[in-house]
Specification:
Rossmann fold; 340 residues; 15 strands; 23% strand; 7-stranded mixed beta sheet; 8 helices; 2 domains; 4-stranded antiparallel beta sheet; alpha/beta
């Protein structure tokens, strides 16, 4: 299991003490409510046929493969008026039947994963502003967390998630730019933290200026963890002019890794020429997340073997729409059968 993001030492000590005392009081026999036998919660009603198309959320259904899908025209504009009939889904080259289709701006569970290594010192103020612009452009019902990372990574909130811009600003301002770049470990820890969220759609925004040089886990492990998480990852590489001139090998490798990671999950990687462009890039990413189709299917291959299944979406564009491009994740890992 990947490690959870580290919370800065001492942040929650007082809260823990209070909760412990309350727990001790509640279990004391003299203080228990008499004759109190709460009924167990009723099971949820079975889903109504076609309800998937109208609900704001898609429930976690075993074996349902969900594809968050972006379609753009030649100018990069989102194409909003497509129907289920405009898509064909293939798994390992075998066509599948889409059981779920919707186009909604659904709330997401989202992590902002920000490089805090020594080389980011001069860049953090503008990066922080861009991250806040990203949040402001997002759905008000999103639940967000912030992870700052260098040699280690820290969950810089007093709670698991927030939608309060002031709390996010405070978390982003916890700058201690020093040390190396444990990018892979920070991503794996953040993917693990996403599992605590309450939204069906999960996203990471990663902003970094360098190649990983301090993680315990390697890049292939990170990509596999990302694909298994079903999260969308968007990456922004902010390289200095000096890096581009004197550290071309690092820049080239970092671009390749960030692009591979993002594309495997259905996200995108951006590499703005200037730091000033990071704000507009983050706004574009927020818009991309808000304008996606959700397509779900039950695979015809029902084997619980844990293997990777490649996924391809084929687009059948309406007449007269010109060339359209479709983007979603490249595949997923099947679940494994539980041993008896």
């Amino acid at each position: 299991m990947p490690e959870m993001a580290i919370t800065r030492p001492g942040i929650k000590f007082a809260k823990i003490c209070v909760l412990f005392l309350l727990a001790m009081l509640l279990v004391s026999p003299g203080l228990r409510a008499q004759n109190q036998n709460p009924l167990p919660p009723s099971p949820p009603p079975p889903p109504t046929p076609g309800a998937q198309n109208q609900s704001h959320t898609i429930k976690n259904v075993v074996d349902l493969v969900v594809l968050h899908t972006t379609v753009v025209d030649e100018k990069g504009n989102f194409v909003p008026d497509l129907t289920r009939d405009n898509f064909r889904v293939f798994e390992d080259k075998i066509e599948q039947k889409a059981s779920v289709f919707s186009k909604e701006d659904v709330p997401v569970t989202m992590g902002l994963v920000i490089d805090n290594s020594g080389s980011m010192k001069e860049k953090r103020p503008q990066v922080n502003e861009a991250a806040l612009s990203f949040v402001r452009t997002s759905n008000k019902q999103d639940e967000v967390f912030v992870v700052n990372f260098n040699d280690e990574y820290y969950l810089d909130l007093d709670e698991d998630f927030t939608s309060n811009p002031n709390e996010l600003h405070e978390a982003l301002e916890k700058i201690d730019t020093r040390g190396s770049t444990a990018l892979y470990d920070a991503i794996i820890g953040s993917l693990d933290h996403l599992k605590k969220g309450h939204k069906d759609k999960r996203v990471l925004l990663v902003i970094t200026d360098g190649d990983d040089d301090a993680s315990r886990k390697d890049f292939p492990y990170t990509v596999k963890a990302a694909v298994e998480s079903n999260a969308l990852i968007y990456a922004v590489g902010v390289f200095s002019d000096e890096d581009r001139k004197s550290n071309k090998k690092m820049v080239r490798k970092s671009k390749k890794d960030l692009t591979t990671l993002a594309e495997a999950t259905g996200g995108l990687a951006f590499f703005p020429d200037n730091l000033a462009d990071v704000d507009s890039v983050c706004t574009e990413i927020a818009r991309d997340i808000r304008n996606q189709y959700t397509i779900g299917y039950y695979p015809t291959n029902t084997a619980k073997d844990g293997t990777f299944r490649s996924v391809k979406l084929e687009l059948i564009p309406p007449k007269g729409r010109g060339k359209l491009s479709v983007r979603t994740r490249t595949g997923y890992y099947a679940s494994k059968a539980t041993p008896n």
